[in-house]
């Protein structure tokens, strides 16, 4: 989920142009699953996220190399992006929109033994 301090950054023309150019350079292929996850689902309307390897913080958001440097970016499908941001992949799945905002959380069904 985009934090309050980063909303202006993610909505900026500069970031959107950077993210679009980066995604195009990766041919819209997820760098984790290589679209194997996407292939199992309908690819119509598939969304990708340009993910920061080193997360943005109030302290580093103005650091060009961290915010815009392609060495710090990674193209992910939504499912892989959700896995990265999930604290424990076995307990829940988080879903993000194209801006990185949390839109849903799927909690697993637990069976008491």
Describe the structure.
The protein is an alpha+beta fold and 113 residues long. Helix content is 29%, strand content 17%. The protein contains five helices and four strands. The strands form two sheets. Strands 1-2 form a two-stranded antiparallel sheet. Strand 3 and strand 4 form a beta hairpin. Residues 109-113 have low confidence and may be disordered.
The portion of residues assigned to helices is 25-40%
> What profile does the largest beta sheet have?
2 strands, antiparallel
So what's the overall shape? globular
Structural class: alpha+beta
Strand order of the largest sheet: 1-2
Please tell me the overall pLDDT. Answer: 81
Work out the strand percent.
15-25%
Computed CA radius of gyration, to the nearest angstrom: 15 Å
First-last Cα distance:
34 Å
Short structural description:
With 113 residues, the chain is α+β, with helices and mostly antiparallel strands. It is built from 5 helices and 4 strands; from the N terminus they run H-H-H-E-H-E-H-E-E.
């Amino acid at each position: 989920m985009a934090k309050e301090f980063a909303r202006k950054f993610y909505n900026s023309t500069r970031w959107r142009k950077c993210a679009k150019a980066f995604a195009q350079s990766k041919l819209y292929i997820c760098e984790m699953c290589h679209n194997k996850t996407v292939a199992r689902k309908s690819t119509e309307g598939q969304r990708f996220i340009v993910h920061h390897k080193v997360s943005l913080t109030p302290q580093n958001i103005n650091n060009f190399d961290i915010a815009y440097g392609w060495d710090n970016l990674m193209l992910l499908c939504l499912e892989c992006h959700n896995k990265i941001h999930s604290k424990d992949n076995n307990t829940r799945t988080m879903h993000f929109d194209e801006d990185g905002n949390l839109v849903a959380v799927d909690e697993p069904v637990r069976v008491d033994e």
